[in-house]
From TrEMBL:
Coiled-coil stretches noted in the UniProt entry, renumbered to this chain: 52-79
Function text: Required for efficient ubiquinone (coenzyme Q) biosynthesis. UbiK is probably an accessory factor of Ubi enzymes and facilitates ubiquinone biosynthesis by acting as an assembly factor, a targeting factor, or both.
Gene: ubiK
GO biological-process terms attached to the record: ubiquinone biosynthetic process
Cellular location(s): Cytoplasm
Protein name: Ubiquinone biosynthesis accessory factor UbiK
GO cellular component terms given for this protein: cytosol
C-alpha cells in the first residue's frame, strides 16, 4: 500500500512546479465550482437522514394504527351484519 505521506509529498512537489498563474486559475475555478454546487444543492428539496428515519417511524406507526382500525371496523361490520 502507498504511504499517504508520500502521496502528499509528491502532490506538493507537483504543486511547486506549476506556474503561479495556472495554480491561481485552478484555485479560482475550484472555488467557483464549489459555489455553484452549493447553490444548486441548496435549491433541491432534501431532508436529512435523521428526518427521513423519523418520518419512516411515524409512517410505520400510522400504518399499524390504520390496520387496527380497519380490523375493528370489519369486526363491527360483521357483528352488525349478523345482528340484522
Amino acid at each position: 500500500m502507498i504511504d499517504p505521506k508520500k502521496i502528499e509529498e509528491i502532490a506538493k512537489q507537483i504543486g511547486a512546479v506549476i506556474p503561479p498563474k495556472v495554480r491561481e486559475m485552478a484555485d479560482d475555478v475550484e472555488s467557483k465550482v464549489k459555489q455553484v454546487l452549493q447553490q444548486k444543492l441548496s435549491q433541491l428539496d432534501f431532508v436529512s437522514r435523521e428526518e427521513f428515519d423519523v418520518q419512516t417511524q411515524v409512517l410505520a406507526k400510522t400504518r399499524a394504527k390504520l390496520d387496527e382500525l380497519e380490523r375493528r371496523v370489519a369486526e363491527l361490520s360483521a357483528k352488525d351484519d349478523s345482528g340484522n
